[in-house]
Amino acid sequence: AYQQALDTGSSEAPLLLAAQAEATRLTGLYGRSEKLLLEFQTNWPDSAYGFRDLGLLYYEQREYAQAEALLEQAITVSPNDFASRYKLAEVSLTQQKWREAEQTMRAIKNQELLKPFHSALFNPDFFALQVQRYQEQGEMVQAIQAQRKLILIRGNVVNYLHLAALYRQVGDTATAVEQCWQAADVLRRTWPRPFDAQLWDLATCLAHDASDGAQERVIRAFSDIHVRHILLGHIHRARGELSAALRAYEQAVSARPESAAPPYFLGETYQALGDPDAAEAAYRRVLFDFPQSPLAPEVMYELGRLLLNTDRPAEAETILTQLLEKDG
After folding, report:
1. pTM here?
2. Residues 275, 196, 127, 63, CA torsion sign
C-alpha cells in the first residue's frame, strides 16, 4: 500500500510509512523500524517526524548521544515541535544532565509564553518532566508541587500513587495514605478487572494505612465483592500477612468461581509461604479450568519455574515448551 501511494504521489504515503515504522518499533523490530524511518527522512526531509522517531528509537536502545542529535535536528526543522523538546528533556534527565534538561524545559516555557494561549504549559508531560527533575535532584517540595499540578490535569491512579510515594519519601505518611485513597476512588470508578496490575499497585500503597478502619473503607469503596476480596488479599500480601491473604483470595474464589485470577494469586501466595505443592495445585487449577485466560501464559511460566526449583526438569520443560508454542 505504501509503495503504491508513493508511486502515485498520494498524500497518504508518508502516513503509511510512518505507521509501518511505528508498528515495527512497538514490536521491538528496531532494525526494521530504523530502515523505514531513514527512508521517511530521505523522502520528506522537511518533516520533524523522522528525526523525532529515530531519536525515540535510539533512546529506547540507550544510544543517548544519537537520540539527542536527532531530537535537536527535529527541533531545528520544526521549532514548535514540543513533542521533540519533551523527549529531549527526558533524554537529558535519563543521563542526569540537569542543566541541559532545565534549558530545554525553559525553552518550552518561554516559547509557549509568546502565544495567546499557553496550552503546552498545561501538558501533563511538562509537569511529569518537572517532577522527575526535582525528584532526582532531591528537591522534594518542588516535586510534590509539580505532581499536584500534574494531578489537576491528569488525575489518574498512577499519578495519585506517585504523589503518595513522594509524601512517604519526605516522611508524611498521613498525607501519603490519603493520596492512596484518592487513587482508590479513581480506580473503583473504572471497574477494574480482577487481574488489573493497578489493583496490586494500589494495595502496596494502602498497605501503609495502619488505621483500624482501613479494611472497612475498602469494603465501602469497592462494591464488586470479587474485586474487593482480591484487593484485600493483595493488601495482606503486601504487608507480609500471607495467611490472611490466602483467606481473602479464597473468598474471592467463592464470590466468582469462574474467575482465573484468585487461584493464580493463591499459587503466588503459597509459593511465598514455602508450600510448593499447594502452589502447584493452584497453578494447575488455572490451566485446567481456564486454559484461554489471559493469565494462562504467566501461570505456565510460574509453574515451569516452580517445577525447575523442585528438581522436576522434565515436567518443567514440557510446560515451558507449551508456553513457547502458545506464544507462537
Report:
1. 0.74
2. positive
